[in-house]
Design a protein that fits this description.
The complex is a heterodimer. Chain A is an alpha/beta fold. Chain A folds into 2 domains: about 5-80 and about 155-235, Rossmann fold (3-Layer(aba) Sandwich); about 95-155, no CATH class. Chain A has helices spanning about 45-50, 75-80, 95-105, 110-125, 125-130, 140-150, 170-185, 200-205, 220-225, 230-235; strands at about 5-15, 20-30, 35-40, 60-65, 65, 80-85, 160, 190-195, 205-210, 215-220. A 6-stranded mixed sheet of chain A has the order 6-7-8-3-9-10, sandwiched between helices. In chain A, strands 2-1-4-5 form a 4-stranded antiparallel sheet, with helices on one face. In chain A, strand 9 (about 205-210) and strand 10 form a beta hairpin. By secondary structure, chain B is mainly α. Chain B has 15 helices and 2 strands. In chain B, a hairpin with a 2-residue loop joins strand 1 (about 155) and strand 2. The chains are: A alpha/beta, B mainly alpha.
Chain lengths: ~240, ~325
C-alpha cells in the first residue's frame, strides 16, 4: 500500500466546444478499489476512455511511474491496463469463446489465452455451457459475465470497470460487485471503477471520488463518503 | 422446407463441398465444351472472385464500398499494360496486377479511415470515377477510350490457355485460392478483430486491436483480390477499355454480394453465379439488365436483408442439431 500505481493530474477532455472533463486529479494505489461516482454526463466514461487513449486528452497520466498520456490503446493495454466497457459491449456476432479470445488480442502467449478462457469458464460455468453461442444471444447478466471474463484475459495490473451495474437486476449487481472484490483479492489486481450506483460502489470500494459536471468535488474513504450528508443527498436518495 | 435443406447441408457439409467441387470440375465435360456456356461460366467465376473481394470489405468489415470495380480495372490495366508494352509473362503480370491493386487499395484505405457511413460510400464512389477518368484520359499509358487490344492469352511454363476449357480451369484455380485466403483470413485472429471492428470500433480499440492497421489490411487484401480478377480478365478477354470498370460494374458486384449474403463465402459464390447466369437467360430483355440488379437489391433489402445465405451459419446449425440429438438420446435413456 501507499504506492500510487496510477496518478492522473489535470486531465481535461473536450468534445468540440464542450468541455466534458475539466482538470481532474486522482490517484489509485496498488491493490486498491477506487470508485469514481457521478451522475449521467459527469464525464466518468470519458475519463476511462482518455486513460485508454481512445479519446484525445490534455494533462498527465502517470502509470507505474511512466507518462502514458497520448499512448495508443494497443500500447496502453499491453502495459497492463484493461477496460471493461460500459453497457457490456461484447461482440454480438462472435461466439462466447471468440469474444474471450478477442480480449486476449494483445496476448501472444497461447498458454495465457488457454488459462484465461479456463478462468472465465470456472468463474462463470454458464459461459462454458454457451461457449459456441453468439455473444448477442446471451442475457444481460451473462453478457456482463462475458465482459468480465474477457477483461481478465490480459491479466491486467489495473482493471477499470465502466458502470458494471448498468441495466442489471439488483441481485445480479450484488453478485458482480462481490466478484470484483474477489478478483482484486485473489488475482492481486488494482481496480478503478466508475458508477452511478453510488451506494453499491462505495460499499465495495476503499476510496471514492465524487465527480460533478467534469470536476471532482469530493474525495475520501468510501466509508466516509457513504456517511456524508452531501453524498447521501445527491446520490443515495437522501436515505 | 428451407430450414430442412439447411439442416441437411449442415449435416453433410464436407460432402456438399466435395459435390460442388466435382460438379465444377466436370462442368465443361457435361456441357461438352459449349463455347457459349463456357464463356458465361468463366465470367461467372470471375465475378465470384470480385464478389468475394467486396464481401471482405463490406460483409466482414462492414464498410460499404461502391468502388470495387476500380480495383478490378487497376488489375486489368496493370496486367494489360505490362503484357503488351513490356512483354512480361502472365506469371508476372497476374501477381503484379494484384500487387498494384493492393497498393491502390491501401491508398483508399488511408482515405477511408477519416470518414464513415454514407460519406465513406460517396468517397468510394468518387474513387471509382477517378480511376475511370484516369483510364480514359491517360492516353499514353492506357490508350484512352480506344482501350488496349491484343492482350495475349494466359501462358504458364509454355502452356497457353488458348481454349475456353483451359481458361475455365485456370479461373477455377484462382477461385479456390481466393476462397482459401478469404476463409483463412476471416476465421483467424485477424478475422475476429475484423468482426469486432464491425460491431464497435471503440470497444475494438479498447481491446487493444489496432483498428487502423486492421482496416487497411482488409482494404489491401480485398483490393488485391479484385486486382487478381482484373489481371485474369484482361488476359482472358484480350481487350479492355474503361467502360468495363465503371460505376455500373461496382453496383453489379454489390448486388451479387447482397443477393448471396454479406459475410458468407458460399453466399458470394451463389450470388455471383445467379446474377451472371440470370441476365443471360433473359437475353431478350437485355436492356433491363440494370433494372434487374436494382430490383434484386430492393427486393433483398425488403424481404431478406441478410441475403440468401448471409444469416445461415452451417456450423451453428450443426451444433444445434447435435444438441437436439443429444437431448433426444437423453430422453430415450430416461424412459
Amino acid at each position: 500500500m501507499g504506492n500510487k500505481i496510477l496518478e492522473v493530474s489535470g486531465l481535461s477532455v473536450h468534445y468540440g466546444m464542450i468541455k466534458a472533463v475539466r482538470g481532474v486529479d486522482f490517484y489509485v494505489e496498488q491493490g486498491e478499489i477506487v470508485s469514481l461516482i457521478g451522475a449521467n454526463g459527469a464525464g466518468k466514461s470519458t475519463i476511462m476512455n482518455a486513460i485508454m487513449g481512445v479519446v484525445p486528452m490534455e494533462g498527465s497520466v502517470q502509470w507505474q511511474g511512466e507518462e502514458i498520456a497520448g499512448w495508443k490503446p494497443e500500447r496502453v493495454v499491453k502495459s497492463g491496463i484493461t477496460l471493461c466497457p460500459e453497457g457490456r459491449l461484447i461482440f454480438p456476432e462472435l461466439t462466447v469463446e471468440q469474444n474471450l479470445r478477442i480480449g486476449a488480442y494483445t496476448v501472444k502467449d497461447e498458454a495465457q489465452i488457454t488459462r484465461g478462457i479456463e478462468r472465465a469458464y470456472t468463474l462463470f460455468p454458464r459461459l462454458r455451457e454457451r461457449k459456441d453461442q453468439m455473444g448477442g444471444t446471451l442475457s444481460g447478466g451473462e453478457q456482463q459475465m462475458l465482459a468480465i471474463g474477457r477483461a481478465l484475459m490480459t491479466e491486467p495490473k489495473l482493471l477499470m470497470f465502466d458502470e458494471p451495474s448498468m441495466g442489471l437486476a439488483p441481485l445480479v449487481v450484488r453478485d458482480i460487485f462481490s466478484l470484483i472484490r474477489e478478483i482484486r483479492d485473489e488475482m492481486h489486481m488494482t481496480i478503478l471503477l466508475v458508477e452511478q450506483n453510488a451506494k453499491q460502489a462505495l460499499k465495495m470500494a476503499d476510496r471514492g471520488y465524487i465527480l460533478e459536471t467534469g470536476e471532482i468535488t469530493m474525495t475520501d474513504k468510501a466509508s466516509v463518503l457513504l456517511e456524508s450528508d452531501q453524498v447521501r443527498a445527491a446520490y443515495l436518495g437522501g436515505l | 422446407m428451407l430450414s430442412k435443406l439447411e439442416n441437411a447441408i449442415a449435416k453433410h457439409q464436407p460432402q456438399v463441398i466435395a459435390a460442388f467441387f466435382v460438379l465444377a470440375l466436370a462442368f465443361p465435360m457435361i456441357m461438352s465444351g459449349s463455347s457459349y456456356v463456357m464463356n458465361i461460366s468463366v465470367m461467372a467465376l470471375t465475378y465470384v472472385i470480385l464478389t468475394l473481394s467486396l464481401n471482405l470489405v463490406t460483409g466482414y468489415l462492414g464498410t460499404t464500398n461502391l468502388g470495387q470495380a476500380a480495383f478490378f480495372g487497376v488489375g486489368a490495366y496493370t496486367s494489360a499494360i505490362l503484357a503488351t508494352k513490356l512483354g512480361l509473362p502472365f506469371l508476372l503480370t497476374l501477381p503484379l496486377a494484384a500487387v498494384m491493386a493492393g497498393l491502390v487499395g491501401m491508398l483508399l484505405g488511408f482515405i477511408t479511415l477519416r470518414v464513415s457511413g454514407r460519406y465513406l460510400s460517396i468517397v468510394t464512389l468518387g474513387f471509382c470515377e477517378i480511376a475511370r477518368l484516369i483510364e480514359l484520359n491517360w492516353y499514353d499509358l492506357t490508350n484512352g477510350p480506344l482501350g488496349i487490344m491484343n492482350i495475349p492469352a494466359p501462358k504458364i511454363f509454355g502452356f497457353t490457355f488458348s481454349n475456353l476449357m483451359s481458361k475455365y480451369y485456370l479461373v477455377l484455380v484462382l477461385v479456390i485460392l481466393v476462397v482459401i485466403v478469404v476463409s483463412r483470413m476471416t476465421q483467424s485472429r485477424t478475422g475476429r478483430a475484423i468482426s469486432a471492428i464491425k460491431s464497435d470500433e471503440l470497444v475494438a480499440d479498447v481491446m487493444g486491436i489496432n483498428v487502423k492497421k486492421t482496416k487497411i489490411l482488409v482494404f489491401v487484401v480485398a483490393s488485391a483480390i479484385a486486382g487478381l480478377a482484373g489481371g485474369f480478365y484482361a488476359h482472358y478477354i484480350s481487350f479492355i477499355d474503361p467502360t468495363s470498370f465503371n460505376y455500373d460494374k461496382s453496383i453489379q458486384i454489390m448486388s451479387m454480394a447482397i443477393l448471396g449474403g454479406m459475410g458468407s463465402i458460399p453466399g458470394s459464390i451463389i450470388g455471383a453465379i445467379i446474377l451472371t447466369v440470370l441476365p443471360e437467360l433473359l437475353r431478350d430483355f437485355v436492356l433491363l439488365r440494370q433494372v434487374l440488379y436494382g430490383v434484386v437489391i430492393v427486393a433483398m433489402v425488403l424481404f431478406r436483408p441478410t441475403g440468401l445465405l448471409g444469416s445461415v451459419n452451417f456450423k451453428h446449425i450443426l451444433q444445434r442439431l447435435r444438441f437436439h440429438e443429444m437431448k433426444a438420446k437423453e430422453g430415450t435413456a430416461h424412459e
